C-alpha cells in the first residue's frame, strides 16, 4: 500500500505574497545601498568615480540576491520520499 502525502497549499501565490516580497526587496535595497555607501565613503577603496558608482549600483543588487537565496534556503521545506 502506497502512502500518499498531503501537499500543503503554497504560500507563494497571490497578491499578498507579491506585495510583501516587493516591500521586502525595496527595504533591503535601501538598507544595502546605505551600507555600501557608508563603506565606500569611509574607506575610498577606488579612486575612479565611474568604478565607485558601478560598485554602489551592483553590490546592493548582489546582496539582495544573496539575502533572498539564503531566506529561501532556510524557509524551504523538503518532503522525504522513503
Distance between the termini: 13 Å
The fraction of residues in strands falls at under 5%
Quaternary assembly: single chain
Mean pLDDT across all residues, rounded? 84
What is the H/E string?
Answer: HH
Q: Tell the overall outline.
A: elongated
Structural class call reads: mainly alpha
Describe what you observe in this structure:
This protein has 82 residues and is mainly α. The protein has a domain at 20-75. 68% of the residues lie in helices and 0% in strands. The protein has 2 helices and no strands. The chain has helices at 15-43, 49-75. Helix 1 packs across helix 2 (49-75). It is elongated, with a radius of gyration of 20 Å.
Write a short abstract of this structure.
The chain has about 80 residues and is mainly α. It contains 2 helices and no strands. The protein has helices spanning about 15-45, 50-75.
Write the layout of secondary structure elements.
Layout: H1 15-43, H2 49-75
Helix pairs in contact: 1-2
Tags for this model:
2 helices
Amino acid at each position: 500500500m502506497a502512502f500518499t502525502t498531503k501537499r500543503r497549499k503554497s504560500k507563494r501565490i497571490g497578491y499578498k505574497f507579491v506585495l510583501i516580497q516587493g516591500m521586502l526587496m525595496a527595504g533591503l535595497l535601501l538598507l544595502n545601498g546605505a551600507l555600501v555607501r557608508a563603506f565606500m565613503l569611509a574607506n575610498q577603496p577606488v579612486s575612479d568615480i565611474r568604478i565607485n558608482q558601478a560598485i554602489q549600483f551592483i553590490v546592493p543588487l548582489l546582496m539582495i540576491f544573496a539575502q533572498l537565496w539564503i531566506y529561501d534556503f532556510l524557509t524551504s521545506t523538503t518532503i522525504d520520499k522513503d
